[in-house]
Structures are given as structure tokens and as C-alpha cells.
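HUMAN: You are asked to prepare a plain-text protein record giving the amino acid sequence and the C-alpha cells, both parts labelled.

ASSISTANT:
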Amino acid sequence: MLDDIPALLPELRMLYEDLHRHPELSFAEVRTAGIMADRLRALGYEVTTGVGQTGVVATLDNGDGATVLLRGDIDALPVKEATGLAYASTAVGHDSDGKEVPVAHACGHDMHATWLIGVATLLATHRDAWRGRVILAVQPAEEIGGGATAMIDDGLFERFGTPDVALGQHVAPAPAGWVLFRPGAVMTASDALKIVMHGRGAHGSTPEQSVDPVVMAAATVMKLQTVVARNIAATESAVVTVGTLHVGTKENIISDHAELTLSVRTFEPAVRDKVLAAISRIAHGEAHSCGAPQPPDITTLYSFPAVTNDADTTHTVGAAFVEHFGPERAMEGPVATASEDFGLFGARGGFPS
């Protein structure tokens, strides 16, 4: 089966470059999902579209055996590509506020989709080499932490069967050709928060009449830098990033509110609880000290658990990688503070992943 890989590479490269050139934002992956569905259907898979909005599920039955779910995510990010590649993205999309934004595959999901088509091709053309059922989950909206949940809530397991194991993979900033694996916790839990801080507006010439949300938000951002430094032990791990801060419309108008969005990354549930409590305490405390007319509103945009690899599954897959690639290219890797919603498949379905 694996001897066919070199012959597949030219076609897979063309697919990768096409997907890279035409990225789509979360839950807007209509073109990408269509390409994936068409290719899987042509390979003989039974294909269902619209699972979890823009997700695709493809199944292939091949006698008695285990059921394995293979997942590849397909959404891109609202960033402008500056690689200068011949197939670089010039695409634009619209964010959740309707604002036009540049779009690029800056997180490698074009590669994930290409990998999925590659393995789907090998499995479909070498049915003599395996037995069982394969479920391919072409997942939307990983970047906003909503795609896995959407597919599961849309009856992924009830409609297509609960797998015995789920396998996923992600590109990483490591030397090309390396394959890394790790049992246990490998990627952090992720929480995205929106904080709206309420002030009192005024003209820029009369700041004494205001409760200035710029000052309130700026002080909050600075104090949030102490969440990890002064609340989390050196033997534990957490990341708190303020990703956006929006306030005001004009230089001589003091606005009546400020909006911040935060990204929180943790491995341990107890650390997560401590970090979220500290964020709330700081935001409420700063609002109170500034004389805000009302407490801040803190909203969870999304939340999903850490990716924790099943030890037995990782041992089996890792041994196969080492046998094929050699120990100089396949090895145990470090933990990452990046996050993934892949862990929800096993957590919600009750199977190893």
C-alpha cells in the first residue's frame, strides 16, 4: 500500500496548492467541503455533506474489523498571507461582525485536508490490506473551537457509528519530514473570552465628566499580565493573551465602553479554574476602582478541553511511525501550548484517541 505514495504526490500537491490558494473561514468552507466530498465520492466512499453545517463525513466498509475515525480540519484564518508563494492566497472573507478580512491557511489545515485525501485514496485502492470500517470526518471550524462540537451534536456517532478509535494529526514548526507523537496531554485546553467594560462617555475636552473605558481597559490589560506570573506556580503551565482591544470611534470622543478578547491556554482543570477566576477578579476590580456604572460583562466565546492522547493508541501508532520513517525522523515530541478541539471526539464519544 505505502509503495503507492510517491505516485500520489503530484496530484496531492496540486490539491494542496489549490486549497492553499482558496482558503475559507470557519463555517464558510463551502468550496473546500465540496472538493473534499467530490473526491471522496469518486473514490467509492459513501459521502454525507452538511454535517455540523459545513462538515463532510465519508464512510467505507470493508468486512469485519475495527471502526476507525480519521479527522482532518479544513478552515483557515483571518490573516493576510505574505509568503510570496506562486499559489499564495489573495482571498477575502467576512468575520462574525460582517467585516471583510483577508483569509489565509496560516495553520496548515490545507495540508490536513490533503493528507486525508491521501490516506482515503490508499484505503480505497488497497482494500485487500485492511478490514473494518473507516469514517472520515472532514471537520469545519476548528479555529473557533466549534467544528467538532457541531459535528457531534449533528449526530456524528448516531448516524455513522461510534468508532473504536479516532486518529488526528497537525502540522508543527519542526524540520520537514519529522513525525512527532506523545502519550498523555499534548495540546492545551482553550478558553476564549470577551470582556465588555462599561464606562461613561464624554467629550475629549471634559474627561472629568467621563468614566474613561480606555484607561480602564488599558489598566486591565496590564494587570492581566500578572495572572500567570503571580497566580500560577512555576511547575504549572498557563498562557493568557489579550488578542484584541477595541474602544472608541473618534479622537475627541471618550467612548462609553471597551471590548477585549482573550485567549487562555491551560493543561490542568484546577489551573484553568484559577486562571479564569483571576481574570474575572481583575476585570471586576478595575471596573470598581474606576467607578464604572456597572460591572463588566464576561462572555465565553468557546471552550474545549486539552488534547490528551491515549497511551496504548499512541504506542501503537508511534511504533508504526518509527518502523516506517526510522527513529531519526519519528520520535516523541514535546507538549504544545497550542490548542485543538480534536479531543472532543474521544471525550464525547467515550473511545480512545
